[in-house]
Every structure is written in C-alpha cells, then in structure tokens.
Amino acid sequence: MAGGKTDKTCLTILEYFPGPGKIFLKEVVEKIKTDDKKSADEALFDALRAIENPIESIAFDVPLQLPKCIRCELKCPGYERCQEPEIKWLRKFYIQHNLNKKPKKVFTPYTERCVDNFIRTELEENFNPPHALGANAAPLTARAHYISRRLEKPCIEVYPKLSLWRIGRSLGIQKSYLRFHKHVITGEETRTAIIQHLVEKDIAFIYHQDIKHLVANPYAFDSFICALTGVLQFTNQVEKRPKGFPKSEKWLAIPKETLDWP
C-alpha cells in the first residue's frame, strides 16, 4: 500500500488449493489510483469486490493498529508511570536495550508499537520497520486504518522484508539477494531469482506476463509477498506471538524459519 494520492498501491490475488498444496497467482492489479470518477480508496474497494472466490484474508504491508497511547481512553499519568501492558513492555524493552548504550534511547509510545521493536532487535537478521506513526509511515498507517475498518474480511499485517527473508531462506536463496530485492540496479535480478525458485520448485504457478509485472514493479512484488504470507498463515506456518507479549498488541503474520513447501 502506498499513499492515497499516488499510483503505487498494488493488489495481488492468490488462490490456494489445499489438496495438491499449490498456489496460483490469479491477478496482479497495479497502479490503483484516483481518477476523474473515483478515489484511489474506492478503486481499491472495487478491486476487492471484484474477487469472485471467498476471501480468506487480506494482507497489508503497513501498520493496521495505532500505537497504544493513541488508542488509549484512560486518564493519562504519563508513560513513565503508566501501567498498561503495552507501555510496561516498552519500558522494560528499552531498559534492557539501553544497558550498554550511550546516549541511551527513549521511546515515544504515541508513535511506536511493541511489535516493531521486537522485529527490529529479536530476530535472526537486522530489520528496521518504521514506527507506525513515524514521519514516513504515519500517512500509510492512517490510510490502512481507514480502509481496514470498512472491510468485512480478516485483515493481517505483514512486514514484506521479513516475510521475504524467511521465505527466501527456506528456499535456499542467498542472503545478499534477499537483502537487496529493491535495489535500483540489482533489484530486478533479485526478484527474478526469487520468483523462479517458487515456480521451478512447483510451489506457485505464475503466468509469464504476471512474472514480468512482479519483476518490473517492486510494489507489485511486495504485494505478492504479502499474499504469499497470507497463504502461510492459512496453512499454520506463521510464528506465534512471543511469551509475555501484550495480548492486546497487534502481532504480525511472520513466516516460520522452517517452512513445509509441497
């Protein structure tokens, strides 16, 4: 998903057949944008309404939940004294990660979430998801919040860079490819290699024309990774929320490190 005033939003529709365990790319809808008759948001709703088969889930690559301090309706004592589970988790997290750091970092619970910090520091690779209401992500978070409220289907949140890493490593794709799939110079080569692995291993069926779109357009490729993560969630191949993670805090659909491909 991109901003509502751009033409970079893409939608990938995947169909999954449990019997043979095969994935079929049905359609890639690119450049969902505003025109003279309708807004980009309404164009996206139209694309979703046009899907004929039942929708299991809709995966977004932007935050679907606002930070705790924005959602909270209690009288605020200040986050230094707040006893809400999410804020207590963030306080403990920052205390632990500030032990050997100078200058010590402070958190802003009105812009960041627990899950973003967990992904940033607790996994096997260095990831850097933006804060949900940070300068870059805030408009996208607001748009996703607006759109997801109108949808009657389950919505899941995906961090494409992490999903691509887990999916790619399970396929034996080299780490350098996975780290630079959006690189201006080598990105197309990287995206081509990843898609070829999925096709050659008979995991996904993708028409040649759609492959061209996914390779040429990194936004379309990310929408494909989001949809593929949705399939993995359907097959129970995503990580459970960590022990002690706040129950009311959004957890992402994160592919397991070891995936069982058909």
Features:
5 strands; 10 helices; 262 residues; two-stranded parallel sheet; single chain; globular; three-stranded mixed beta sheet; alpha/beta; 2 domains
Please describe what this structure looks like.
This protein is an alpha/beta fold and 262 residues long. The protein folds into two domains: 156 residues, no CATH class; 54 residues, no CATH class. Strand 1 and strand 2 form a beta hairpin. The longest helix is centred in the last third of the chain and has 17 residues.
The proportion of residues in beta strands is 5-15%
Q: Secondary-structure element order, as H and E?
A: EEHEHHHHEHHHEHH
- Alpha plus pi helix count: 10
- The overall pLDDT average reads 92
Order of strands side by side in the largest beta sheet? Answer: 1-2-5
Query: Structural class of the helix and strand makeup?
Result: alpha/beta
The largest β sheet comes out as: 3 strands, mixed
What does the overall shape look like? globular
Kindly report how far apart the N and C termini lie: 29 Å
What layout of secondary structure does this protein have?
Layout: E1 9-17, E2 22-32, H1 40-49, E3 58-60, H2 68-71, H3 85-97, H4 114-121, H5 138-150, E4 155-157, H6 160-170, H7 175-179, H8 187-200, E5 204-205, H9 208-216, H10 218-234
Parallel strand pairs: 2-5, 3-4
Antiparallel strand pairs: 1-2
